[in-house]
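Quick one - inputs below.
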Amino acid sequence: MASVLIQFAHPALEKSRVNQRLLEAASDVPLVTVNDLYEQYPDFDIDIDREQELLLRHDYVLLHHPMYWYSAPAMTKQWIDLTLEHGWAYGRQGNALTGKKMMNVMTTGGRQEAYQEAGYNRYTVRQFLAPFEQTALLCKMLYLPPFVVHGTHRIAEEGILEAVQQYRTLLERLTADEFNPDHAAQFAYANDFLIEKQSL
Amino acid sequence: MSQSVLLQAIVYLAAGVVFVPIAKRLGLGSVLGYLLAGMVIGPDGLGLVGEEGQDVMHVAEFGVVIMLFLIGLELEPDLLWKLRVPIVGLGGLQVVLTTVVISGLAMLTGLPWQAALAVGMILTMSSTAIVLQTMNEKGLMQAASGQSTFSVLLFQDIAVIPILALLPLLATYPLSESGEGGGHDTLLADLPGWLQTLAVLGAVLAVVMLGRFVMRPVFRIIASTGLREVFIASALLLVGGVALLMESVGLSPALGAFVSGVVLANSEYKHELESDIDPFRGLLLGLFFISVGSSIDFGLIQENPLLVVGVVLGMMTLKAIVLAVLGRRFKLSTDQNLIFSLALSQVGEFAFVLLSFSLQNGILDTRTVGLLTAAVALSMALTPIVFLVNEKLLLPRIGTTAQDKKASDQFSASNPVIVAGFGRYGNIVGRFLRANGIGTTVLDFDSDRVDILRKIGIKVYYGDASRYDLLKSAGAEEAKVIVIALDSPEKSLELVETIKKHFPHLQILVRARDRDDAYELMDAGIEHVYRETLDSSLRTGVDAMRLLGLRAYHAERSARLFRKHDEEALSELASVRHDQKQYFSTARRRIRELEQLISSDETDRWLREVEEGWDSESLRREANQQTN
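Output:
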């Protein structure tokens, strides 16, 4: 069994159709803790002791957020800046997070086709996430491929339902610890890995 | 005999201890409790005290002297200036007109003009103790009626002094106390007139000089010794000394005390003096009211029940009519005028002082004084009932109605938020919520404000927010949140109690004036308590930091962290506060708390100057170690 911490950041959740449903689906999965950062810190004053304590108690850290300007909302960055302290998360004595796993869970307005060399965003999602990947590595964590819900601008109810179902499956898989990180790391998206597993 | 003195003291104390809490419980106020206690132990009741009640009254009159000293201390020149029109206009006219009307009537009953004038002046007085207490409890002090009431009471308090000076001139009977006299054939009696006048002026001047130049350094020296009882003793000595000096030149001791109070009103020892002397005032006034109660002649009432009832109702009606006419003249709305004129319709505690003074000075005879004393006591006893009748019967029919009939159709659905009190605090909360499209229902006790809000189209209920029926009709059953933004902490607590009892589902947010209020509310189990000055004080601090050139974000963030730290310190102090009940005066407790707070500001590591994540100091250190 493994525990999962969802670091959720959305500055206007009340307007996000998809993220509301995703969060709702995640909230009652056993062993999953949802930490709603904008709700917790409306003033951006992050309680570092509380956050570090939360990190220590969990095996997986999911940064769940919409993609804003090819990155995360400001709160996620603030959280990283302040919580992952030198000497605690990284540096010679910073070993608190060693061996934990980190993953981005994202919604993007653009469709998957846009995120490739020939697409109008010119880079893949994975390339845009390089700073997160390197952050995880610097903190001696294992970085897993992201779980992405693409095309939320035009997504229909079936699409949302499917995404919600996939997210639940992902969380159940993670908490059941039947997740081979090394195997999963070969995929571009965590979504692909889930589909493969299901088809087996 | 010392034993009998002790016994008497025990009788008085026991009577007070038994009856005052009962009267308070019944909503009748402490003054009535004392009067009741006096009636019960008096010669016509259990007979536990007899004729010596008169002597006790003399001792207790010192309580009145102290009361005037405290009134003087409270008289801030600014407040006086602000209220000069209502005080002099409204108050002055009330005193003059009521005196004229009542004196006229008294003359018609066959009293000589001197006695009639005395009766008129005496019955003009209303009860500061009862009225201010009641208005405060009902949260009416900020309304137009509250301000007018305060002005009139203040003028009456001041008018006592010239009245005390005037009364001896009206003497027609021989002095009731021979030999020692009423305190007026004094040291100066043998001097020629002009020298007497000079001595009187000299004495007043001496009191002013004493207060201004002598007492401050004396208080400073005594305060620096840290011996509280000596400070109290010196304060009592000051009041007693001034009273004696005044008496010896033939002026009223109360006047002297008042003057010295005014002189010390701006001194740094004002609050210390107040909190130290106040218990004595309370006790002595209590004693005074008990002795008044015990001197009520029930035989007299039994003999002439109709006369007494007639006098009580007659004088209350007359006073109310005069007040109502003045209220209208001074542009009070109907509601406010009703509250104002009925609130002041009783005759107050000063009447007892003036009546006993008149008796001693041979202005009124025993029978008249007995009759009036009984009538005054009864009128005071009726005051809470008058308030109640006004609230339940008169205001709902005549004045602003509790529910807004016109608007209630527009707002058929009930609102999720109720804001109780739409004064300087509640109106911001209410406006903010409305601006965000959140339906709010307002409860307010100021009929003028209610009328205006209704005109704008806000759903407003008029009345005492702590009443169950009003809350219910305002939709408390369907609402989710109630914001209590009342001025009066007592009312807030009362409202909290009603809500917890009848509408337990409501989330309660309460405004607190200060730390002490916050503690009370936290004790009552309220989670969301807001000290009204906290946030704006911190914003002031932030701006000060920014003007000194500190970075804006640093200043803002420090304020937020400080607030968090302060709220934590508040709940910490709230839990240890009960151990600090040994602090007799709240002023002292506050100072002690401030000390604790300031030291916690310094020792707590509540503020990381800059979060380490934003500071590369430790990274630089590690890098340097590697290169070395």
